[in-house]
Amino acid sequence: MFLDKGSTQSNLDCFLHCTTPIVRSQFLPKTEMRDLNSLWHPWEREKVEYFTLGDLWNCYDEWSAYGAGVPIVLGNGETLVQYYVPYLSAIQIFTSSSCVNGLREETDDGETRDLFSDSCSEESEMDKLWRWDGCSSEEGGCDQDNLLHLNDRLGYLYFQYFERSTPYGRVPLMDKITGLARRYPGLMSLRNVDLSPASWMAVAWYPIYHIPMGRTIKDLSTCFLTYHTLSSSFQDMDLDDDIENDERKRKEGEGISLPSFGLATYKMQGNVWVSGNCGRDQERLVSLLSVADSWLKQLRVQHHDFNYFVGIRRG
After folding, report:
1. 61, 173 in Cβ contact below 8 A?
2. What is the dihedral of CA 19, 237, 100, 46, to 10 degrees?
3. Is 0.70 surpassed by the pTM of this model?
4. Alpha-carbon span 86 to 178, nearest angstrom
5. Number of neighbours of residue 45 by Cβ within 10 angstroms
6. I need a labelling partner for 2 at 20 to 30 A (CA). Which of 102, 171, 184, 212 fits?
7. Residue 232's pLDDT band (boundaries 50, 70, 90)?
């Protein structure tokens, strides 16, 4: 797939567009709408569109196997398609319950066992640390009311993962999720309407090859780190306002788009990624990096890949 000659999309536009998952959606039964967390869903709707995390990961299946193709225009006018493979960099999932009910696994002998008998107690300890860490030491600690307020606002930490391996020691996102879901089946069955606004993930994108092949282009060695919200609380927010493209405005039932709300880069050389949109792409990169940084600071998270990407560039 190559860019149309009349296209006004910049290379950065194309990357963000081509790496945005559009998840197959369903409509929540009206009988279940009243069970939604009112703090996370304060508005009333006639219809609530949702997706399962399993459907989200399916968007990354082909990308994990073959790479996501991004059409790029070089400075000399030459066009090519650069392919990127996604890797799970970080994820935090907060739910409205300390132990997610109804997630069980049937064993070979026909018995049904609770997968969370161990992980719940483990997550509860993590939960306590998370809640305590979420309060300023200047406040002299957190009283019980504050803890309850934080539980209501952020939810309970069901699962988190932060990748620390070198890029060559990682497996593509779909393979990683499949392995983690064996112990945490909620990674497949949870719905975005079950997750708090604090739920998020970061995907690392590493270049593998470009078509047509034949020569090495340093400008295309850039690696990206995209940040995506997992909660339906942000579903109606258009995070891509500065790309005026009506084709991206999807109708109800056509899928839910999860555009990047934050971005970090590594090995950015040349001006392939900042030459478009009359210089606005440089400002956009700075803005997306700032948003990612603010998000991590707000949640008091140390994201290894982010620190590495940013530290190398600033060093």
Report:
1. no
2. -120
3. yes
4. 14
5. 11
6. 171
7. confident
